[in-house]
Amino acid sequence: MKYIVLGILSFLFGASFFSPYSGSDRSFMPEDSVTDILVKLGDSPVLDKYPIKNNPRISAAIGEAIVKQGFAETPDGKKVKKQSKHFVCTSCHNVVKEDPDLAFPDPQERLEYAVEKGIPFLQGTTLYGAVNRETYYNGDYDKKYGDLVEPARNDIREAIKLCAVECAQGRELKGWEVESVLSYLWTIDLKMNDLNLAGEESDFINEVLSGKDDSRADALAMIDSKYLKDSPATFTRPPADRSIGYDYEGNPANGELIYEQSCMHCHENERYSYFHLDKHKMSLRHMKRHIGGYTRHSIYQVIRWGVPVKSGKRSYMPQYPQEKMSDQMVEDLRAYFEAS
Ligand code: HEC
Ligand code: HEC
Fold it and tell me: Whole-angstrom Cα distance, residue 57 to residue 75?
């Protein structure tokens, strides 16, 4: 609400008039929201991205419970049906920063960062900073979901609703649940210290915020250049000859990291899947034996095509676009299985 009012007033009267920073000597804090600072610099906020709190049930806490547990109890004590039998949103999405450099996301760097932070390495893009993006289900996702992607491309509510049904294979979210998820996503928006600003860049932005420098457009452009407004996705095929694989030398140590941070996140003890994988020889040899084959037990098959919903079991495995796993990384995983 604060933003909406500030936004409308800034729009009507010019941001500098209402900016609490103008004329003062204040500088931004590392934990300040990027969107807040953009608005203070004169950017007009996208009003329809903010939750509409027209129901007392709507809250960020409820949204967080839906994302992490699949359901939440409402303040009026109403039990809510679990959103999906198979998944929670965090089966496939992190809810913290997952890329060390938000302007140049790279799967290998993300993997190393995931190991360092102890977070999984997944097919879905982190929900952290989702509200800072402008388009959703980018790139080749329209090949997978067709016309369903159309309304979700530019609309975060539609993206949330689409994913609940199509990705999580669950029931539709109610209006107040969508607004609650959106409220939660606003608590995990990008913060200024996520942008890796160099010292002189921070100084410059602070000069503009405090009114000593009036290069607002430059300050906005500088912040803009520090993170992507979309999460790109390129689907590619398995190699032509699976016994040969992609044309890269695999690194088994890196493959082990992929196995632990990614495959085991869902498969260990059948956490989000009916298929168990662990680090014992049985699992590793099973995966090794099927590499060159054309069944859904070949890593090339499952990584590049995913595993479709089987009749009766509305559970499936999302594929990894290149941006989530490069061909080199697939060969690293292969090398790990082959070394077992
Ligand atoms: C089975 C895996 C899976 C589950 C479960 C899942 N998602 Fe997703 N989600 C994806 C994939 C894959 C995409 C494709 C785009 C991307 O994230 O890169 C996606 C996309 C999204 C996007 C758009 C992100 C973007 O930048 O394109 C949002 C928002 C989203 N999901 C929210 C949710 C919410 C909320 C839930 C829980 C109700 C959920 N998802 C459950 C796999 C999943
Ligand atoms: C987001 C969760 C998730 C991740 C991450 C994931 N899987 Fe899966 N996987 C599934 C689900 C769900 C299925 C569907 C079939 C099922 O539930 O058994 C599946 C199916 C499979 C199957 C076919 C099993 C069968 O009998 O049909 C294989 C093999 C497989 N995954 C291997 C992998 C490997 C290798 C990785 C890592 C590169 C991986 N998975 C990562 C969730 C995941």
Answer: 6
Q: Is 200 exposed, middle or buried (0-12, 13-18, 19+ CB in 10 A)?
A: exposed
In whole angstroms, give the CA distance from residue 298 to residue 254: 19
Our mutation pick for probing the ligand 1 site, out of 93, 121, 148, 324, counting the most ligand atoms within 8 A of Cβ, is 93
Ligand 2 neighbours by CB, cut-off 6 Å: 91-92, 122-123, 262-263, 265-267, 272-275, 296-297, 299, 302-303, 307, 315-317
pLDDT tens-digit series, residues 299-326: 999 999 999 887 666 789 999 999 999 9
Q: How far apart are CA 275 and CA 84, in angstroms?
A: 18
Burial of 248 (0-12, 13-18, 19+ CB in 10 A): middle
* pLDDT greater at residue 312 or residue 192: 192
CB 301 within 8 Å of CB 294: yes
* Non-local CB neighbours of 73 within 8 Å, separated by 6+ positions: 65, 79, 80
Quote the distance between the C-alpha of residue 98 and its chain's center: 8
Closest-CA residue, ligand 2 atom 36, reads: 263
Which pLDDT band holds residue 81 (cuts at 50, 70, 90)? Answer: confident
